[in-house]
Amino acid sequence: MKKKTILSAIALAVGAALYAASGDSVIEEVAWMIGDEPIYKSEIEQAYMDMQNDRQAIEGDPYCFIPEQIAIERLFLHQADLDTVEVQESMVQQQVDAQMNFLVTNLGTREKVEQYFRKPFPEIREYYATNMRNRTRVQQVRNSLTKNLKVTPGDVRRYYNTLSQDSIPYVPLQVEVQLLTLNPVIPRQEIDDVKARLRDYADRVTRGESDFSTLAILYSEAPEGVRGGEIGFMGRGQLVPEYAAVAFNLNDPKKVSKIVETEYGFHIIQLIEKRGDRINTRHILLRPKVAEKDLTDALTRLDSVRADIVDKKLLTFEDAVRLVSQDKDTRMSNGVMVNQNTGTTRYEMSQLPQEIAKQVAELQPGEISKPFIMRDPKHDREIVAMVRLSKRHDAHIANLGDDYQTFKDMYEEAQRQAIVDKWLAKKIKETYIRIEEGWRGCEFQHKGWIKN
Question: pTM value?
Answer without folding.
Answer: 0.68
